[in-house]
Amino acid sequence: MGMAALLLVWALLHCAGTVTMVRASHAVYPELQSLEAEKVDETSRTGYHFQPPKHWINDPNGPMYYKGLYHLFYQYNPKGAVWGNIVWAHSVSTDLIDWTALAPGIYPSRQFDVKGCWSGSATVLPSGVPVVMYTGIDPDEHQVQNVAYPKNLSDPFLREWVKPDYNPIIAPDSGVNASAFRDPTTAWYGPDRHWRLLVGSKVGGKGLAVLYRSRDFRRWVKAHHPLHSGLTGMWECPDFFPVAVHGGGRHYRRGVDTAELHDRALAEEVKYVLKVSLDLTRYEYYTVGTYDHATDRYTPDAGFRDNDYGLRYDYGDFYASKSFYDPAKRRRVLWGWANESDTVPDDRRKGWAGIQAIPRKLWLSPRGKQLIQWPVEEVKALRAKHVNVSDKVVKSGQYFEVTGFKSSDVEVEFAIGDLSKAERFNPRWLTDPQALCKKRGARETGEVGPFGLWVLAAGDLTERTAVFFRVFRANSSSSSRLVVLMCNDPTNSTFEAQVYRPTFASFVNVDIARTKTIALRTLIEPSVVESFGAGGRTCILTRVYPKKALGDNAHLFVFNHGEVDVKVTRLDAWEMRTPKMNVPAQ
Ligand code: DQQ
Questions:
Q1: Which helix (H) or strand (E) holds 4?
Q2: Which residue among 63, 96, 293, 427 is the one 20 to 30 A from 564 at the CA level?
Q3: Glycosyl hydrolase family 32 C-terminal domain spans which residues (predicted)?
Q4: HSE-up of residue 37 (Cα within 13 Å, Cβ side)
Q5: For residue 236, how far is its CA from the centre of ligand 1 (angstroms)?
Q6: Nearest atom of ligand 1 to the alpha carbon of 75
Q7: Do 207 and 351 share a structural domain?
Q8: Could you report the per-residue pLDDT of 193-240, keeping only the tens digit for each?
């Protein structure tokens, strides 16, 4: 393969991002912050995606497993459907599916958090004691880091939290921007018997993962250099954790606990992931690399773009995510927040705003080139009525209806008849798949694709959201390679012009010339379409608000607008039961 082709392949594999803006999440509407919802409009509320009974939610906070219960805290406005009055709402579950709502765990009560309790993480100490570290907003609007301990360790619900008087444990020093200093990570313990954690920050246009060390979890000292930094503006919600490598001594899909970070034997078998949430673009990026405990330096592996064109967990509406190690199933689980795409007046009218994406198991791909995510296995327990389609050819221009379930989980595999007809790929498209998806949306016919699903579709197809693939051929002087675009086109999801309808998209890192097939799993509910392409290599979550395709009128179709026939080798669609979603504790 010539150098040009090598460069092209490298670029194809790694230039999956774009810097298009997602609507800002924390726009502040002081006059609306404390207006209680008069009623809750259930029309576009989700069933099995996490949400509280009403009001605004954003970032997942401090997820952990303790004494048989999964805990999820999250940023919540108890007084209204816009951001403000932020507390840590608290829910527990035995299975990540049915949730019980408890009273908020952390809320403003002291000088060091009187103006808000912002995002943070949980660390389970070697003694088994869980501790949460969060950002408090003090009376001067400075962002400080605080710690809280459970009042009663024998309560698996961890209902009450005690904030020691010695808070804040980390205050911004003169070298730190006090209004850009937040979101502490889970702490990890080093071979030098020091705890470490990261705090997101910025200096000028540079985002920072500021590193702190402590012997006793109480007195924290800033390291001379951040763990990592980048010219991408403020870094919110950093996450730093190990992942098993394929070929290591253990199953590579298993999770690794941050507590194992100092294990020298394990060091050969793990890589590290650094994820940051970019305040400027409202997208998240990650790199995979090595971490040197002695120097506290993190170095991304060659091939990972260490900027806002890097790899993302999700190419749609997914932000401020946080992972945790689940010791019960030895896996790493990822939570992420999906903001609304409708308007603030819509949210006020609905009485609620924001959901959490389905918790995803996350692991490193066998070749170590990217992370793979898949809905936690527990989701399958919600599958009810089932429809199957096998070996059905969808000819050019054809479509067929599968079913009309209100909420569904759909798994489909497409086999492509003739890949030699794939359209020519213009290398200029590499940097902006979202723009390519807009230009070549679901209605634009092609050669190999667009083919995929119309979801949340009205029976007459006047409303529909397309989740689809297109295959292109990228030629260089000496070789050619197939490029797969995965796309989410909500332009016809509603006719409400003011709803934000971005054509989220990414390239999928698959060798389709070899497999000749591509798989898609999509979780569909009122107002959310969460898709996993090629077994979880590319994920796209979109919020949509159809007016007609609601309830039993929400249909699912398979379509092919490409010249080349495709075959649905297998399609399984399940109607999803509604779990107990945040019923109050008795
Ligand atoms: N949301 C929190 C902050 C965090 C931001 C405030 C990210 O701690 O930086 O609600 O969405």
A1: helix 3-14
A2: 427
A3: 378-575
A4: 24
A5: 7
A6: 10
A7: yes
A8: 999 999 999 999 999 999 999 999 999 999 999 999 999 999 999 999
Pick from 182, 185, 322 the residue to mutate for probing ligand 1's pocket: most ligand atoms within 8 Å of its CB: 182
Q: Please indicate, yes or no, whether residues 204 and 323 belong to a single structural domain of this protein.
A: yes
Among 236, 278, 280, 317, residue to substitute to test ligand 1 (most atoms within 8 Å of Cβ):
236
Which residues, in sequence order, are CB contacts of 295 under 8 Å at separation 6+? none
Ligand 1 closest atom vs CA 25? 11
Boundary (domain end) residue, out of 311, 344, 376: 376
Supply 81's token pair: 């459907």
Q: How far apart are CA 44 and CA 226, in angstroms?
A: 43
- Encode pLDDT of 93-146 as tens digits: 999 999 999 999 999 999 999 999 999 999 999 999 999 999 999 999 999 999
Q: What is the DSSP string of 187-231?
A: PEE-TTS-EEEEEEEEETTEEEEEEEEESSSSSEEE-SS-SEEES
Backbone phi, psi, residue 253, to 5°: -85, -10
Q: What is the mean pLDDT of the chain?
A: 92
> What whole-number distance in Å separates Cα of residue 261 and Cα of residue 72?
24
- 391 and 353 together in one domain: no
- Is 113 near ligand 1, meaning CB less than 6 Å away? no
Q: Which of 41, 59, 239, 565 is catalytic?
A: 59
Nearest CA to ligand 1 atom 9: 236
Region of 373 (left: φ > 0; alpha: ψ -120 to 50; beta: rest) is: beta
Same domain for 267 and 341, yes or no, is yes
The rounded distance, in Å, linking the Cα atoms of 165 and 5 is: 61
| Mean pLDDT across 45-67 | 97
In this structure, the chain runs to a length of 586
Closest atom of ligand 1 relative to the 118 alpha carbon:
8
The angle subtended at Cα 406 by Cα 403 and Cα 407, nearest 5°, is 100
- pTM for the model: 0.94
Would residue 342 show up in a list of annotated catalytic residues for this protein? no
- CATH number, residue 40: 2.115.10.20
Cβ atoms of 352 and 51 closer than 8 Å: yes
**Ligand 1 and 440: CB distance under 6 A:** no
Q: 345 and 312, same structural domain?
A: yes
Report yes or no: 556 and 409 within 8 Å, Cβ to Cβ. Answer: no
In this structure, the answer to whether residues 405 and 258 fall within a common structural domain is: no
Same domain, 318 and 391: no
The whole domain housing 253 covers 5-47+55-376
Q: Please identify, among 327, 343, 376, the residue that sits at the C-terminal boundary of a domain.
A: 376
Please indicate, yes or no, if residue 458 is contained in any of the structural domains: yes
CA 118 to ligand 1 centroid distance, Å? 6
pLDDT digit string (tens) for 535-550? 999 999 999 999 999 9
Structure tokens at 141: 């609007």
Query: Which residue, judged by its Cα, is nearest atom 11 of ligand 1?
Result: 320
Ligand 1 atom 7 nearest Cα:
320
Instruction: Note whether 240 and 262 are same-domain residues.
Output: yes
